[in-house]
Design goal:
SH3 type barrels, globular, five-stranded antiparallel beta sheet, binds biotin, about 35% strand
Length: about 240
């Protein structure tokens, strides 16, 4: 089935849709694919974390050829697209973007994204959206919510159907345009944040992102460009 130029492959169960996408990238079909699974038994999150794949939620990976040097465009296009899709359901929804590519709804995480490199020029954008349920346990890095909890009643399939045309359009936009819109919708611009990396924590004021989607942090040593890490807002951790 085709949606907005993406060939959509639907699976009942897989380990991780990103694993499927990686495998398919080796076949070099040249096509842009979306792999959606009803169940993931080994869903992966960022930085080696587990992505709990609860029933009724959306798990999919977009596999497309995209130059590595323009990765920021892809990240911003994909994250903004999630926010825009939620707003299609409920224009007044309190949706915010949290660097690098989380989507917050009423201040809690409703969607996350795992970017991986496929074979050759292929990039894999793995996206999880809490449609019906949100994981709740003490080990979670950030509080989570679902569309349902915010009064948005939809299904994983309907969300994907709405999202893909928006993503296709966003991918054609200029990086600077996406950057501006990302910043308008970001949580905490101008506020103190803490960025946790593998071996260190950096505190500063969140200035926004550049056109590569790297985080700009004002510290005592000037503006630092941050390429990876987890962000916490003041009073959160
Ligand atoms: C994160 O916020 O840590 C990223 C979560 C990404 C989850 C999605 S679900 C579909 C795709 N398959 C995976 O195993 N992970 C991504």
């Amino acid at each position: 089935m085709q949606i907005a130029g993406f060939e959509v492959i639907r699976l009942t169960e897989t380990t991780s849709t990103n694993d499927e996408a990686l495998q398919l990238s080796r076949d070099k079909s040249g096509q842009s694919l979306v792999i959606k699974a009803q169940r993931q038994i080994k869903g992966r999150g960022r930085r080696g974390r587990v992505w709990q794949s609860l029933d009724g939620n959306l798990f999919f990976s977009v596999l497309l050829e995209f130059p590595l040097k323009d990765l920021g465009t892809l990240v911003m296009a994909a994250a903004l697209g999630l926010l825009q899709t939620i707003k299609q359901y409920k224009p007044t929804a309190d949706v915010r973007l949290k660097w690098p590519n989380d989507v917050l709804l009423n201040g809690a995480k409703v969607s996350g994204m795992l970017l991986e490199k496929g074979d050759g020029e292929y990039m894999i954008v793995g996206i999880g959206v809490n449609i019906m349920q949100s994981p709740q346990n003490d080990e979670m890095l950030y509080p989570a919510t679902s569309l349902k909890a915010a009064g948005i009643n939809t299904t994983a399939d309907d969300f994907l159907q709405k999202y893909l045309p928006i993503l296709a359009e966003n991918i054609r936009r200029k990086a600077t345009d996406l950057q501006q819109e990302w910043m308008k919708n970001a949580k905490g611009t101008g506020e103190r944040i803490l960025v946790r990396q593998n071996d260190k924590e950096i505190c500063g004021t969140f200035c926004g992102i550049d056109e590569n989607a790297d985080l700009l942090l004002q510290t005592a040593n000037g503006i630092q460009k941050i390429l990876a890490g987890d962000v916490f807002y003041e009073g959160e951790k």
